[in-house]
Design a protein that fits this description.
Blueprint (H helix, E strand, L loop, with lengths): L5 E5 L14 H10 L4 E5 L6 H12 L5 E4 L6 H7 L2 E4 L4 H10 L3 H9 L4 E5 L1 H4 L28 E6 L12 H9 L7 E5 L2 E6 L2 E6 L3 E4 L7 E3 L16
């Protein structure tokens, strides 16, 4: 059986009531141990201080039994990605992250290796946004301009990390739902999976599962209201179209 894509897309690294990445520890450890991986290459490009960001991730993950190295510390980035077995793309600003990935010619390399099943992708927040079809549904401000909003495309739909639908009675502005439906009005829009804090999407070939301590919400053109998805739900139908490609 040919290798298939494997990824873990987190809504965020932080969740109320948990230390950094604690809510995702079991899932991260499982996907790495299952594939006999002991080194994780961290991509810190969503923030400006690469060294301190990498040090923060090392402090959390290395006690779990894995070595963490920052991609920015290598001179030949393409070679390092080609030799890596797993990467973790951290959160921050999605526009900055995607722009930097394009500038360093890493988008296609990551896409190809993940789809062929030779590279495991773990992303959080902005790192989750760039793993999807496009970054149109990020919550971030466009502080820089990537050459395109088209992203790595591990999955053929969009994700909205940090999804929240709680609105105070005094709030009269747009809600997150309204903004997502505005995107869905565009002719070339994709379904949008909102991931609540503490949730993540586990991708194992053509099997997609919502994991973590919270669920998700699915927005589609055909639905007048978003569909609530409970934790541990199978959402493999979102990737069925890939089988035909």
């Amino acid at each position: 059986m040919a290798p298939q894509r494997q990824a873990l897309l987190l809504s965020s690294s932080n969740c109320h009531g948990y230390s950094m990445l604690e809510f995702a520890k079991q899932e991260i450890c499982n996907i790495l141990k299952k594939n006999s991986i002991n080194e994780l290459v961290f991509i810190p490009y969503a923030q400006k201080d690469y060294d301190s960001y990498t040090a923060k991730i090392k402090e959390v993950i290395e006690p779990w039994g894995f070595t963490v190295t920052g991609l920015h510390s290598y001179s030949n980035l393409t070679e390092r990605i080609n030799n890596a077995k797993a990467i973790f793309v951290g959160g921050g600003n999605t526009f900055l992250l995607l722009k930097t990935l394009y500038e360093k010619n890493l988008v296609q390399i990551i896409r190809d290796r993940v789809h062929e099943g030779s590279l495991i992708y773990i992303g959080s927040s902005a790192g989750t946004n760039v793993a999807t079809k496009s970054i149109h549904t990020t919550n971030d401000m466009p502080i820089v301009y990537p050459p395109t909003f088209e992203a790595i495309g591990i999955v053929p739909f969009n994700i909205n990390p940090h999804y929240i639908d709680l609105v105070s009675e005094t709030h009269k502005g747009e809600t997150r739902d309204q903004r997502i439906y505005e995107y869905l009005e565009m002719a070339d829009s994709n379904p949008v999976l909102g991931l609540r804090e503490g949730s993540m999407l586990h991708i194992d070939g053509y099997k997609l599962t919502i994991k973590g301590i919270a669920g998700g919400v699915l927005f589609q053109k055909t639905d007048k209201k978003p569909v609530v998805i409970a934790p541990d739900s199978d959402v493999s139908f979102l990737i069925e179209q890939d089988k035909e490609l």
